[in-house]
Amino acid sequence: MLLAAIVALPVVAADDNLQQMPSKHKRTGIADHTIGILRAATVGMEFRLKAGVALGGTAPMPIPLNIQEVAGFSPRLNLNIEAEFVQDFNGPIGFSTGLRLETKGMRTNARVANYSMSMVSGGQEVSGVWWGMVETQVSNNYLTLPILFLWKPSPRWDLKIGPYGSFVLGRQFTGNVYDGYLREGSPTGEKIVIEEKTPYDFSDEVSRWDWGVQLAADWRAFPHLLVGLDLTWGMKDIFKKDFETIAFNMYPVYLRLNFGYAF
Question: Which of 20, 37, 169, 171 has the fewest Cβ atoms surrounding its Cβ within 10 A?
Fold first, then answer.
C-alpha cells in the first residue's frame, strides 16, 4: 500500500499542475485556466448561454401610402434568453444553432387614410375603410431555432448568417382608432364618425409560425464572456394567409444586444 501511494503521488501532482497551468484556448488564443473549456475546444465545440434585449418594430416593407404620418413610435424593452451550440470545422468555418426564447414588441401611433379596419363600436363589430388615427400595440413571444453559417475572421470574432424559424407562443396585436371616421363596408359606405378611442384586436389572426434571416456578430471579451449583436429580419407576414382586414404584409425586424457565457 505504501509503495502504491508513493508511485501514485507524482501522477496526482502532475494532474493538479495541469489543471492549474494557464493554457491557450485553441479557438481564441486567449489564456484560460478552465480545463473543461480546453477539452471542448480541441474538437472545435462550444456551448454558450446568452441573455439580451431587442429593439425594433413590426411594420410593412415598404411603408404604404395608406400610412400618411407616423405620429409616435415606442420600442419595447424585449428580453430574450438563448442556449447556443457552436461547432468549428478545423479552421475559421463552422456553424451555430440553438434555441431562443424571445419577445418582439412595440407601440406605434399613425395617421392613416383609406385603411382597412375592423373594430368594436357601440358594442357591435363594424368593418370598413378608416380615415384617422390608429394606435397599435404588438407583443409576441417566440421560440426560435436559428441555423447559422459561422466564419471567424480573427480569434476573438464570430460572424454568422443564416435562416431562423420561430413558433409563436403568445400573440398580441391590439390597439385603438380615434379622431376620424369609418366608411362601413367600402370607401363609399355609410360614414361613422369616431372621436373617442375605439378598440380593435387582431391577436387571434397572428400566424403561429415565423421565419426569416439572421445576421450576427459575437466578440469574445474574455475567455468565458461574449458580447454580441443580432439582426433578425422576418420574411413572412405575421398574419395568417386568410386574414384580409389589413391589406398589406407586416414583418418583424429587430436588433438584439446580448451577453453570453461560453462553457
Answer: 20
